[in-house]
């Protein structure tokens, strides 16, 4: 599939997700980066969104809990170009009953070429980037071109 360039905006929409064993770590991370996160729009899956909002006072658009469809809701928002950055503190040492949903979410983030951080160190690197508060060009699939080509065959 051909690609096109599209800029991620300066004010980003950030998805915040954490497995149960990492929720507290994500809460602390959000508290540590309160000033930066307050400049952007935040989305979170169920419990994670509620915990972050309660701890930090930041407004978080809360979706369903991950296992109940929240991961899939975020995936849809990524595919619709509504999410520009994914912070997902996942627990690699615990099995997850909704692992296929998690893999689908990470796959969509890779397909649509948005930045992803899966731990505190990579999340710190993303937030400290000079691109965090400026437009950032990215290559992404040319889905409209793909459809146009398919319809002429």
Characterization of this structure:
Helices cover 44% and strands 21% of the residues. Helix 3 links the parallel strand 3 (41-44) and strand 4. It has a single domain (3-152), classed as Rossmann fold (3-Layer(aba) Sandwich). It is α/β, with parallel strands linked by helices and 153 residues long. The model has no long low-confidence stretch (mean pLDDT 93). The protein has helices at 23-32, 34-37, 46-56, 70-79, 99-111, 120-128, 143-152, and strands spanning 3-8, 13-18, 41-44, 60-62, 85-89, 116-117, 136-141. It contains seven helices and seven strands, in the order ββααβαβαβαβαβα.
Percent helix: 40-55%
Order of helices and strands: EEHHEHEHEHEHEH
Output the CATH homologous superfamily: Methylglyoxal synthase-like domain
Main beta sheet: 5 strands, parallel
* Separation of the first and last Cα atoms: 15 Å
Shape: globular
Low-confidence stretches: none
Rg, rounded, reads: 16 Å
- CATH topology group: Rossmann fold
CATH class annotation: Alpha Beta
Oligomerization state of this entry? single chain
Mean pLDDT: 93
CATH architecture: 3-Layer(aba) Sandwich
In which order are the strands of the major sheet placed?
4-3-2-5-6
Number of extended strands: 7
Secondary-structure blueprint of this entry?
Layout: E1 3-8, E2 13-18, H1 23-32, H2 34-37, E3 41-44, H3 46-56, E4 60-62, H4 70-79, E5 85-89, H5 99-111, E6 116-117, H6 120-128, E7 136-141, H7 143-152
Parallel strand pairs: 2-3, 2-5, 3-4, 5-6
Antiparallel strand pairs: 1-7
């Amino acid at each position: 599939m051909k690609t096109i360039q599209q800029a991620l905006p300066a004010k980003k929409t950030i998805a915040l997700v954490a497995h149960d064993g990492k929720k507290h770590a994500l809460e602390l991370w959000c508290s540590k980066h309160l000033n930066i996160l307050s400049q952007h729009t935040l989305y979170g899956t169920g419990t994670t969104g509620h915990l972050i909002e309660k701890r930090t006072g930041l407004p978080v658009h809360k979706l369903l809990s991950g296992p109940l469809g929240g991961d899939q809701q975020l995936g849809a928002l990524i595919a619709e170009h509504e999410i520009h950055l994914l912070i997902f503190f996942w627990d690699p040492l615990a099995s997850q009953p909704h692992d296929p949903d998690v893999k689908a979410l990470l796959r969509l983030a890779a397909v649509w070429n948005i930045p992803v951080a899966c731990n505190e160190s990579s999340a710190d690197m993303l937030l400290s980037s000079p691109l965090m508060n400026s437009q950032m060009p990215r290559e992404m699939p040319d889905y409209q071109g793909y459809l146009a080509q398919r319809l002429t065959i």
